[in-house]
Structures are given as structure tokens and as C-alpha cells.
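Hey all, quick one. A colleague (J.T.) asked me to put the S-adenosylmethionine job into the tracker so the inputs and the C-alpha cells live in one place instead of scattered across chat threads. No bug as far as I know, just bookkeeping. Sequence used:
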Amino acid sequence: MFKPFSLPAIAVLPRAPKNGSPVPGLTSLYHKTVRGPYGSAAYPGNCSGELIKDLLRYFKPKRVLDPMTGSGTCADVCQELGIECRSTDLQGRRFDPADACDPASFQEIGRFDFVWIHPPYWRQKVYSNDPRDLSVCTNLESFLSGYRRLIANCSAALNPGGRLAVLMGDYDDREAGFVPLTFHTKRLAFDAGLKQCCTDIIRFSHGASSSKKIYRSSFIPGLHDTCMIFEKSRQRKTGTDAPSAHRRPECPSAGCIPTEPDSVSAGKATVHQKSSGNTPSDIGALPQKSRG
Ligand SMILES: C[S@@+](CC[C@H](N)C(=O)[O-])C[C@H]1O[C@@H](n2cnc3c(N)ncnc32)[C@H](O)[C@@H]1O
């Protein structure tokens, strides 16, 4: 006997202390229900532009990179705020195509004050059938291997003192079980030499497609994803101290092909518009239990 899905509830949030923040509404609990007129709500796995906008207003970067831009949510926010932004995605529908797991994609693009990434939550949603796509990795080890290269590439693209913001959700996989992707994100970012520079931001998942589904199985629904912000040291590291995306040999097009063992086995708003193409909504069957 299944109960119909529940109506949204009103929760009382803790009072936030007054402080000198230029964005006082930005706290560890991000609960805006609107996504803003940025990117496309129809793009699978799209995210709110409001969170990106608040982060950019808080950190005030001059140059932004989004190497997994999807429908271009970050690019649209940057355009509104007048911030230079380079946006690419493996699919290259609206933007230039580039594999964010390949260090070669980061050559000759300069350095950035802020990198925003919203990667696939492993195979919770499958975006293409391109073997370099992180969402088509057939096992967790290969996903984490590609994710490690992505984070190392982004770290290498930051100016000293620059920030990497990662939006990620934990994921309950039908075969692998519960996968704490937020934990792995932090582990890989620390391995890349980054430090977390502020609180996790718990983003309430308003509008998630899974919230309208009815499942036969019993589980505790995950109603949020997590934005983690890391900072690159202001001191330049040299020699063997320097974490590098290039230190170990990598297969250049190895998005999901493990090339190194993972320790857990397991421009101007560069809006290079492209002609419209198919959306990836109909690609791939997911061995997933629930939205994380
Ligand atoms: C969660 S979606 C990003 C959605 C975006 N934030 C938006 O609001 O539209 C993840 C994106 O990562 C892209 N992607 C997956 N593997 C990639 C890779 N190796 N290099 C670059 N992009 C990749 C997918 O094509 C997809 O567009």
C-alpha cells in the first residue's frame, strides 16, 4: 500500500548571525525555490542559477570557468553580472566541446579566480553514450578515476587563492549501494592540494524529478545536494610538492577508463552558442534506486 507523495512542508530555519557578508541570505542552508532565468530547466540535471549568482556576488571573481556547463546556467549568470566566463561541455550543444577530464582541454585557456563544476552524480543521470562522459562509467572505480582528473585539472586552472565550487549529491546505486560522492569530492580535492574554505552549502532539491515519483522500495529520501567550496593556496608550490593533473601518465581520452588506481577501490561570458541538438534525457538506462 503506497501513500501518495507528500506535499512540500514548511520548516523553520535557524536564525543566521548578522555579519559583514555582501550576500547576507547566503548561508549553509540554501532553500530558494526558484532557479532563475539561467540555463534551461529542461536540461536533465540542470541546477539553480541563484546559488551560482550568490556565490559569485560573495567571492567576486573576475574570471570564471565552467567546464561541465550543460545548458549554460553559470554562463548566463556570469553574463548578467558582467563577469568573464569560459564554458565548455563534453556534449558541445550550446558551447564548445571539451573533455574536462583531459588535461589537454585546459591548455592555453589561462587561469581563473573561480571554477564552478556540477558534474554527473556518477550514473544517476546519463548524459550521453560518449565513453569519456563521467555518467557512463560502468563502475565506481572508473568514475572516481575520471573525477580525480577533473578536480586536478580544475585545481591546476586556478590562480593562487582561487576557488573551486563543486555541486555534488550522494547517490544510491542499485548495484554499488549508497555512494557518498560528497565524501569522495572532498577527498579528491584535498588530494589535489585544495583546502575547504567555508561551510558546506546544503542546497534543498526543489523541483527534483524524483520527488514526483512513487517507489516500491523503502529508503530515506535525500532531498538535498551539497555545494563544497575549496581554495587554492596563495603560495606557489614547486617540485614534488605540487599536486598536478599531469604528474602521472594519463590516457588523453580516458573519461571513464581507469588510468590510475583510486585509493577507495571500489571571455567574456564565452557564450559560443551552437545550434540546438537533442537533449540527453532519453539516453541510457540507470541502475539507480533513488535520487540521492
Ligand atoms: C549535472 S550536468 C550540468 C548541468 C548544468 N549545471 C546546468 O545547469 O545545465 C553535468 C554535465 O557534465 C557533462 N559531462 C560529463 N562528462 C564530461 C566530461 N568528461 N567532460 C565535460 N563534460 C562532461 C554532461 O554532458 C552534463 O552536461
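Adding what we noticed when we looked at it: The chain has one domain: 46-290. The two ends are 23 Å apart (CA to CA).
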